[in-house]
Structures are given as C-alpha cells and as structure tokens.
Amino acid sequence: MPATITSIAHYFPPDVYTNEYFEQYLDTSDEWITERTGIKERRFLKEGATSDLIVPAAKLCLERRGMKPEDVDCIIVATVTPDHMFPATACVVQNKLGIPNAWGFDLSAACSGFLFALVTAAKIVESGGARNVLLCGADKMSAIVDFEDRAQAVLFGDGAGVALIEKSDDPNLGILDHILYIDGEGGKYLYQAAGGSAKPASIETVKNREHYIHQEGQAVFKAAVKGMADVSVEIMEKNNLTKDDIAYLVPHQANLRIITATAQRMGISMDKVMVNIDKYANTTAATIPSCLSQWWEAGKLKKGDNLILASFGAGFTWGAVYMKWSM
Ligand code: COA
C-alpha cells in the first residue's frame, strides 16, 4: 500500500507585517514588492523558536486524527531554522508534545524540505519502519533574514505545517510517485555563510553579517523557474497525466512569478494553483503543507483529487510529488 496524508494542520503566528511596514525604514515600496513577488504581508514570531511554530500545528493535526501522543512512532522536522544546531528540533518537539515512544530526526533541504521529508516519511511507513510519521515543515525565517537588506527582508515569513503520514487503505490513493534532485553547483547562490563547521561563529562573522541569508536573487530565480517547471512537467508525463487530470498544483511559495511560470508550462490555469504567498510570504519548509491544510480546511480538496506538489530551494534542491488526496 502507498503511504498517504491522513491529517493536516498549520500554524502562522498572529503578528502581521505588511509591505507598508518595510516602507517605513527601507528604500522599498508596496508596489515593487507586490509586482516583483506577489507578497502583500507576512507573519513573524515575536518570541520563541521553530518548535513553537510546530507545536500548535502538531497538536491540531493529531487532534484531527483522534490520535494521542503515545500513538506517534516517528517525528521528522524539515527546517533550515532549527531551534539549535543540535539537538535536533524533532527531539525538542517530541519533548514539548510529550510523545513517549517515538524516534525521529531533522531534515535539511531548505524550500524543498517538506517534499524531501514527505518522500522519506512515505518510504519509512511503506517499508514498515514505523506505523506513522508526524511530518513537520516549519521555519522561523525571521531568525536568519537580514532586515537591513531590502532584497531579502520582504521575501520571507514564519510558519509551520504538520501532516500525519500513514499507510493508505486504498492502493489507488496516497503518494504515488516522486522525482527529486539536488545540485550543489547552485549552493553559491543561496546560503548562510557562517555558523557551521566551515566558518564557525566569530566576532568577524557577526560584523560581516554572515549569519544571515545570502541570496543572489536573479540566479536563483532563473534556476527556480526552470527547475520547478521542468520537474512538474516531467512527473506529469511519467504518469500520463494531462492538464485536465490535475485538480491542483501545490507549489513552493517563493515568488508568484515562479509559480505562474510553472503553471503555464503545465498548461493549467491559476484557479488550480494553491497560492498563499500573498498573505504569508516564503515560509520555506512550511509553504506546501500550509497550503494543503488551508485548502483542506476550506473544503476545496476532495478524495481522489490528483495533486502535483513541486518545490525549488537552496542547495539547489528541487522536485515534484504526485499524490491522490485521500482525506
Ligand atoms: N524594493 C525595491 N527595490 C528592490 C527590492 C525591494 N525590496 N529588492 C531589490 N530591489 C532592486 C534591486 O536593488 C535592483 O535595483 P538595481 O536595478 O538598481 O540594481 C532591482 O530591484 C532589481 O533587482 P533584481 O534582484 O534583479 O530583482 P528581481 O526581479 O530578480 O526580483 C527577487 C528579486 C529576489 C524577488 C527575485 O529574484 C526572486 O524571487 N528570486 C528567487 C527567490 C527564490 O526562489 N528563492 C528560492 C527559494 S528560498
């Protein structure tokens, strides 16, 4: 049996920061941000860490499935903003939720984190390595964004999406196929320079602002448009899917122009594309699960819907998942 998503929930912190907030102190404008990115506002967590974004979403996810903490077998956290370099945020989440019998780990694939972790979780469940995986995609991007740099301050937000992965009871429903890629040549365009073993934290690294995101926007943009569109078309062709077969494209939310270009290449109209970048910006590992959760809550997802999940992120990392919705 394939694995599937049996419950889903999301959490965004309450504090809203509009484009006008940045206009007050940066040389930017609502018009530029809206036209170039599609973003109007985002949420930042004022106090707390990535695990504090995950916990409310995870509680709701388990509640929706009627599951108790003691029923969880495995926890995977996809994030580039872990609470600490170590221990893993999965351990922090396990402790905060009082889950007594689980193993787990963190997975680092930036904006593709949820997709890579979804495939990993599916394989663990399908092989019998666990009955279920509490799969968390979450990032507190405000912890690593340089708020003095207009080219990145406006792009990101904080949030979490949590899905429960279990075996499907129907062989035709669930996570049916995936295509995933990495290419380290792209690493030089999007990274956090210091804080790892290559460049441990020092007074110099702090002075040089090397603990913040470094992004060469145009290079990443070009690679993202090609990467996300190519892999989405590739998975459609591999599974003999036409544009009419697809209920929704669920793309990573980095830039509305990248999303639109992907939809155009797939030949699907924007009413079949999940978009929440306008309200929440790029929440990295949280974009795809939060979209799924919001669309499910709104009653717009039906059992049997064909979904293409697609992402592109730092690494470079990118890929697509084909699933038939089963809830
Ligand atoms: N407000 C106003 N002007 C801004 C600005 C802002 N917030 N940010 C950048 N600019 C300026 C630049 O300084 C530049 O000015 P110049 O021409 O005088 O040098 C101009 O706008 C164009 O900059 P550019 O970087 O070419 O813009 P862009 O159209 O490529 O858009 C991004 C910038 C970051 C929005 C876009 O490149 C992008 O989305 N990149 C990909 C992000 C991504 O996918 N990340 C991967 C996942 S995390």
Reading the helices and strands in chain order gives EEHHEHEHEHEHEEEHEHEHHHEE
CATH class of the largest domain: Alpha Beta
Count of discrete alpha- or pi-helical segments spanning 4 or more residues = 11
Structural class: alpha/beta
Unreliable stretches: none
Helical content stands at 25-40%
The hetero compounds bound to this protein are: coenzyme A
Computed Rg: 19 Å
Q: What spatial order of strands do you see in the largest sheet?
A: 1-7-6-4-5
* The CATH H-level homologous superfamily of the largest domain: Thiolase/Chalcone synthase
Please tally the β strands and state the result: 13
What share of the residues does DSSP label as strand, in percent? 15-25%
Calculate the terminal CA-CA distance, rounded to whole Å. Answer: 16 Å
CATH topology of the largest domain: Peroxisomal Thiolase, Chain A, domain 1
Q: Could you say which overall geometry the principal axes of the C-alpha atoms support?
A: globular
Name a few traits of the molecule.
327 residues, alpha/beta, Peroxisomal Thiolase, Chain A, domain 1, 2 domains, five-stranded mixed β-sheet, four-stranded mixed β-sheet, 11 helices, 13 strands, 33% helix, globular, binds coenzyme A
What can you see in these coordinates?
The protein has 327 residues and is of the alpha/beta class. It has two domains: 3-167, Thiolase/Chalcone synthase (Peroxisomal Thiolase, Chain A, domain 1, 3-Layer(aba) Sandwich); 174-324, Thiolase/Chalcone synthase (Peroxisomal Thiolase, Chain A, domain 1, 3-Layer(aba) Sandwich). The chain is 33% helix and 24% strand. The protein has helices at 19-23, 30-37, 50-65, 89-97, 113-126, 150-153, 203-207, 217-238, 256-266, 277-280, 287-297, and strands at residues 3-11, 16-18, 41-43, 74-78, 103-107, 132-140, 158-167, 174-182, 190-192, 213-215, 248-251, 306-313, 317-324. Helix 8 runs parallel beside helix 9 (256-266). Residues 28, 32-33, 36-37, 111, 150-151, 154, 217-218, 220-221, 224, 254-255, 258, 282, 313 line the site of coenzyme A.
